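$ fold --in a.seq
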Amino acid sequence: MSRTDILIIGSGVAGLSVAIKMAEQRQDINITVLSKTLESETNTSWAQGGIAAVWNLEKDDHQKHIEDTLVAGDGLCDPEIVRFVIEEGPTRVKELIEWGARFDKEDDGRFDLGMEGGHSENRILHYKDITGKEIQRTLSAKAKSYNNIKVLEHLYAVNLITQHHLGRNLTRLSNDIECYGAYVLNKETNEIETLLAKATVMCTGGSGQVYLNTTNPLIATGDGIAMVYRAKGRLANMEFVQFHPTALFTTTNENPDFLISEAVRGFGGILKTPGGEEFMQKYDERLSLAPRDIVARAIDNEMKVSGEEHMCLDCRHLDQQEFLEHFPNIYEKCKSLGIDPFVDMIPVVPACHYICGGIKVDAYGQSSIKHLYAAGECTCTGLHGANRLASNSLLEGLVFGDRIAQSVLKEINHLKWNEDIPDWDAEGTSEPNELVLLHQSWKELKSIMSYYVGIVRSDIRLKMALNRLHLLFLEVEELYNNSKISPQLCELRNLITIAYLITRGAQMRKESRGLHFTIDHPNQFDYLETTLM
């Protein structure tokens, strides 16, 4: 058993922002950041396009960015959350720049602001087409400058510790659940450690690995959301899964799919059929720069109607030198597959990209469980509503990282560790001898979600998915209860939970809105959120 004042699970933009903002004000408290692999291996590192913030005040203003966010969110955003994220965002980005972030600039020294789908102005700060890596580098370097921030790698959080582990029967109606830390699997010793904390912050990123095609890294297995669900915390709007319209189509079944950034369309790339015909005019007046939910459904529909395996992104008319300066990694990836973007159209397909629902939190990142906060993609803050506006996610992580730090620091002097927590009980478990089954179950899970709970849904597809997911749950839960813990088993278990939450949320929402489209309920009604308690 070990103790820390603040436990942060996840080392991406949200987690490191919390740590840094706390350390800036209190270098006398211990801050522990967990990474289940390497500190740099995060969802943040995979972000290509950039971070949205009002920067050019001659042409842009907060109200425009607010309106763009609300329109994309299709009636489900929380206006107050949207307002303060957009208004506080530029200050947080300025801090990032002061810490060393190198965003691309024009020859005259002004920032080169990009355009992406759903935005009314150029406001995307970026670093080439690897903005996420640059932000991760900046935050990691800044965190290392504080002696009281300890980043621990290869430690996998398994379960949150609550009164349940003291023998109390908690339910989803319990309103006084408290978090005391987490049970953590040390991947080097293969032992479960008890890590106590006065306050815990969940920043575990996304859940894209629940689908066959995803732009998310292998670590995106929904761990934080699943842990909070098991701890009886409140979740919301899990049915809103954002499929990025333009993942690179290949015949090699890569995992993850390579992302062709939305910034390429903002730069002038045009969506076309493999035969070279434009089609977005049939779906939205904003054409290739419509919000992601509209573009993804349009591509999906065109593929189904035509029988084609993919659609295309035409960049052949763009300035070659400027394209190479802005998108060097995209160009090199295409060339490695024999695709010359200046000669050939880039084949693209939609792929799971972002979960807009998650752990329900307030304006300061507080979850329904006391002393448990959350930030980043694992949350439902009210910013994204039914569909996330491009490049708002990194902004959300920075703003909520700062707000969580403010909130926790106000109460940290009054918090104590719970010393009565028992060690992890592994009695009756044995070394697993059927790990080959995990791979097959994972494949089955991805197939169920991709074919039954994808971009277009129906009542019968959702019912069939739930039936199959229930069988998978029973099989994997039996394995979990009788086997010694492994990361692979825990990740599969978490993904089955995520799959259930997405599917059940979709089944509850009897309308089509934003990212959730069902052929049985094509019209919008006045549902606010689907709360999964």
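$ fold --in b.seq
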Amino acid sequence: MKKDVKNALNEKMQVKLPETLNKENILSELENKENNIIEMPKKNKAKKILPIAASFMLVVGLVGMYFGLGLGDKNAPVIGEGTGVVNYQSYDKIYDRFDELHKEYKKENFFDMFGNAVEGEFANNDSDTAAPESAVDGSDDTATNMNGQSNPAGPSANGGSSHGTTNTQEKDVDEGDIIKTDGRYLYIVNSGTKAPVSIVDTENGEMKKVADITLELNESVTDIYIYNNYLVILGNCDKEEENTQAGDFADDVEIYNTYQSVVAWGDTFVKVYDITDKTAPEKVTEYVQEGTLKSSRMIGSKLYTISTYYVNVYNKNYRDDCIPEIETNGACEKVPAGCISIVEETKSTTYAVITTLDVEKDKEPLCEAILGECNQLYASSKGLFLSETDYWDEKNQETTKIYRFEYTDNGVEFKCMGKVAGFINNQFSMSYDGEYFRIATTLDKVTVDGDSVSMSMSDRVNNLYILNNDMEIVGKVEDLAKGELIKSVRFVGNMAYVVTFRQTDPLFVIDLTDPINPTVKGELKIPGFSQYLHPIADGYLIGVGQDGTETGVNDDCKVSLFDVTNPYEPKETISIPVSNGKAYVYTEVAYNHKLYINLSESDFAVPFSTNDYWSNGKLLQGNHYIRYNFDNGNLSEVVRYDLGDDVVEIRGATYIGNTFYAVVGKSMRGVEIVSFDLNTNEKTGSLQTYEWIK
């Protein structure tokens, strides 16, 4: 045995241990195992090591965790709290990892980004105590409205009246949107590359554009945030990568041609402006993190931005690109090796890059990265989670990995990884209360017969898992709604509401009070299905989705009210179709929950687009925000705000005082704000903020 190991044990073992972990037993195990690590032949593209090697690692791990020994050189991997993830303390080991992937991709002719598959892995389509004070700085000033949504900016700095906020999943975690307001000014993301962000004054009910924040030719904004007197702009900036295809893959025509067709890559940019003077925003910091913007969250003054950065191992110069970089105010640096975690089993060459910026205090972001893709982001004030779904793992099964991060004074820190069977629908499929993580999945079961693998939708099942902070499954409900697909999920307190669909819409009510033994309390089957669920009051849910009959969906949409006050007998008490089955109706809320607008404790608005149809002798068509009223267990339609016939996109909406503002894209014109009086419901004005064709 190496002397430094023995000396370290002799020096550190000054405390009483269980008999199985006394010094003599550990030394004996180490001496017996040290020279007996045997590698098995490769199978399923991954090395399998005999249990004797695992025993050796277990002993070393136990000693290291127990005493904090610093064994080995600086290049040795640091094992995370969860199995299967390592952290190398130097770039050399990361380069070695990509050398292996480069050789393996060449040998196996894998397709990663090209064709969206790696071993059949496809891109999908987004601690016991509360987070430290630094992670939720400013949250005490957060004004919470009726549905648990929040106003992260706090009271209006301009003394304005009540105003809308972005519809978020968690009340104390803000999400980026294309429209924000501080109670007087509207901040609008216009559509298109190089399209500016507009600032519109609404004083005295009149709309007046007071500033445009211009962008570079290759920049396109996707989201904005407002925090006090700061405006945060996020988006993607395209860059052209020189095609250097040659060398190793030059003789492979298929790979060569695939790579030839992909030369444009995108990075994520973040810009922070001081908007004390709304007419002259002043940029205070900016940075670019490599990879396409995946999602973001803001807690207090801290912004968390996630991008997915692809390393092209088909390029002979791949080593130049295998460490993601951050460019801050013109200075470029690599993400520190100690801040990069690597999922051992992954064959992906895509990183999830996480940056943290305190918009009030910091000029430079703090970085963390994990080599393992991010399909969805979920964040509460108590933890941040990334999910990655492998649709075809080595057992021919869909598996979702969950990466748990904790907030720290310096950003986020990777803690551990967990796995569950199946794939998730969206971010609402996940929830975390600081002690337990909950996730709902759909699993397509497969049948393996020799080299043949088959899958039948009739064997599809749905599951709900509860994991502890070590990302270990402690409770589960499996095999729900065989043959159906999860369409929406909502976690409310200790209850989970899961909607599945095949021909009818089962709404499952699952009690999570006992995390070890979650229990299905009730089930409701109705025509159609809800693609978005929203808690509107204690014991009541709003459902937005497809209308239908007992034989399946029709082309209409509906808004439903579910009474779940008795979890054993959930009821759809009211269902309001948009066109009574007379037209094709579509709502983007199914895919963008931020378009659901809370107007008051009793009113909300949902956007719908319809084809022409007749109703009561009138030809109805176009795009509308429909306003609904909830009153003491009843739901009714109030009014339809007509957004215009030439609308090609309903982009977002909010309100200030008694005025409702909707942002739309107009055919051959540009982006426009349309306003309505919430008392009279009459249209009060419009303002074009950006012209597409000049």
